[in-house]
Each structure stands twice: as structure tokens, then as C-alpha cells.
Amino acid sequence: MILGRVCGTVVSTVEHPFYDGKKQLIVRACLPDGTLDGEKYVIAVDLVGAGIGQTVLVEDEGNSARQLMGATNAPVRSVIVGIVDAVTEG
């Protein structure tokens, strides 16, 4: 899993039919204190209604992502599974 911040959306005119009606977001990895973790990013299918600027939790493992979407043969690797309210280190 990746902690990240949504920094943009992906819009395409031609895409695999699996992505019809699904929002795809660009998520940059971040550290628990909220600072960005270098240039690491993923493009993830949004399952929770996240928006730009929000901190999210991303499942970034293809098989788990496909299981969450109920699509065993889908061309998907990353999905946003939660919007993070706060991170505490302890």
C-alpha cells in the first residue's frame, strides 16, 4: 500500500473498455508528515470519490487491485481504497 496525495486526473479519448466510467487519478507518494516522497507516482482507479489535494491510501499490487474491483482479468494495477483524515506516528 502507498500513502499518497492526489495531484491530478487522467482524461483520455481512447482507452480499454474496462475503464469506461471509471475515474483515474494521479497520486504522488508522500511521507506520513505529508511531504511528497520524491517523484514517485501512480495512476490509480478511484473507488472512494477522492479529489485533488486529498491524502489517500492506494493498493498498488495488481492482483489485490483486481480482486477489489471484482475483475480478475482487468488491466489494472492500482486502486484508491481510502481517504486519509490524519496520520499519527507512534
Order of helices and strands: EEEEHE
Number of E-state strands: 5
Q: Numbering strands along the chain, what is their spatial order in the largest sheet?
A: 1-2-3-5-4
Question: What kind of sheet is the major sheet?
Answer: 5 strands, mixed, barrel
pLDDT under 50 segments (min length 5)?
none
If classified by CATH, what would the architecture be?
A: Beta Barrel
Q: What is the distance, rounded to the nearest whole angstrom, between the alpha carbons of the first and last residues?
A: 19 Å
Whole-number count of domains: 1
Rg over CA atoms, rounded to whole Å, is 13 Å
Give the integer mean of the pLDDT values: 92
Report helical residue fraction: under 10%
Shape: globular
- Please report which band the strand proportion falls in: under 5%, 5-15%, 15-25%, 25-35%, 35-45% or over 45%: 35-45%
State the CATH class.
Mainly Beta
CATH superfamily: EutN/Ccml
Q: Could you say what the CATH topology is called?
A: OB fold (Dihydrolipoamide Acetyltransferase, E2P)
Q: Helix- and strand-based class?
A: mainly beta
Summed up, the helix count is 1
SSE diagram, text form:
Layout: E1 2-10, E2 24-30, E3 36-46, E4 55-60, H1 62-69, E5 78-83
Parallel strand pairs: 3-5
Antiparallel strand pairs: 1-2, 1-4, 2-3, 4-5
Note down, in words, how this protein is organized.
The chain is mostly beta strands and 90 residues long. It is 9% helix and 43% strand. The chain has a single domain (2-12, 19-83), classed as EutN/Ccml (OB fold (Dihydrolipoamide Acetyltransferase, E2P)), CATH 2.40.50. It has one helix spanning 62-69; strands at 2-10, 24-30, 36-46, 55-60, 78-83. β2 (24-30) and β3 form a beta hairpin. The chain starts with a strand and ends in a 7-residue tail after the last strand. It has a five-stranded mixed beta barrel with strand order 1-2-3-5-4.
